[in-house]
Each structure stands twice: as structure tokens, then as C-alpha cells.
Amino acid sequence: MESVFILTTMRNKILIALDESTTSTGYAVFRNSALIEHGIFSSKSKDVLERVSYIMEEIEKLIKRYKPNDMIIEDVQITMNAATAKSLLGLQFMIEIYAHRNNISCETYRTTKWRKILGLSNSRALDRKAKKQETIDYIKNKYDIEILKDDESDAIAIGA
Predict the structure, then answer these.
(1) Residues 6+ apart with CB under 8 A from 151
(2) Closest alpha carbon to 58 in 86, 98, 31
(3) I need a labelling partner for 38 at 20 to 30 A (CA). Which of 55, 119, 148, 158 fits?
């Protein structure tokens, strides 16, 4: 009986990966390492609390729909002004608390970590735009899908 439970659990391993932002959060859902859904949660509101609230609601819906075993979210790199950093760190912490309350393992990956895992460049000689394009190209080659927004390609790459 135990082997049936283990086999069932292995067949339904769900991972959600997020590239969170207060305006456009990319997401990717994987079942047993296969990409099954991806997209963006986006808000045009000028009010940061409305944007973060909307994005968090959408993440909660995604989690309720797929009931993931694990989540990986991109760790915030504080290279922006204090107000933006505060909002982004708040969103990250809300995601981590929600995962914890729902018994979902949640890891944060620095950009350099997931890029290294995939064999993508972390060179300082490559600017941000070139690195984003490299990720978009990686996703196109690996999954044969066209991605227009780097938030979405980053989320897929984080979970790949």
C-alpha cells in the first residue's frame, strides 16, 4: 500500500515558480518537471498597495488551483529606491508566509543561482537587457514557445 502512495505522490509533483514584481509578476507551473502553464499577473494601477494586493490574490488563486508541493521565487535584489524595495520585499514575504501557512516548501533563488544552474551568463560584461534576451532565447529553444515579456521567461527559467 505504501508504494502506491509514493507512486501517486511522485506522479503529481507540482512546482510553481515566480518572478515577482509589484507591476508584472511572471509565473510558471510544472508537473513532474514538465511546463504546464505560464503567464503574467499584471496591474496598471498607480497605487502600489492595489497592485501588490491584486498580484497576491492571483498568486493565491494559482496556488489553490494547482496545490503545489514546492515553490521557487526569485530573491529580491535591492538595487532600487527604498520605496520600491519595501514594496517588493513585502510581496516576497507575503508569498513566503502564504506558502508556509499552506505547507508548501518555498525557496528563494538569487538571479545568479538560477542562471548558473541553466548555464546562462552571469558576466558583468553582459548588460541586463542582453541577459533578459538570453533567457528568452533559452526558453524558446527548450520549450519551443515565444515569450515577449521577460518576467514570464524568467519565471519559467527559475522553475526549469
Answers:
(1) 19, 21, 24, 25, 26, 40
(2) 98
(3) 119
The conformation of residue 32, written as its DSSP 8-state character, comes to: T
**pLDDT tens digits for range 68-125:** 999 999 998 776 678 888 888 999 999 999 999 999 999 999 998 999 999 898 888 8
Q: Is the pTM of this model over 0.70?
A: yes
Instruction: Give the H/E segment covering residue 88.
Output: helix 82-101
Cell numbers that stand for 44 in this block = 496598471
In whole angstroms, give the CA distance from residue 25 to residue 154.
Answer: 10
CA distances from 123 to 62, 65, 110, 130, 158 (A): 34, 38, 15, 11, 18
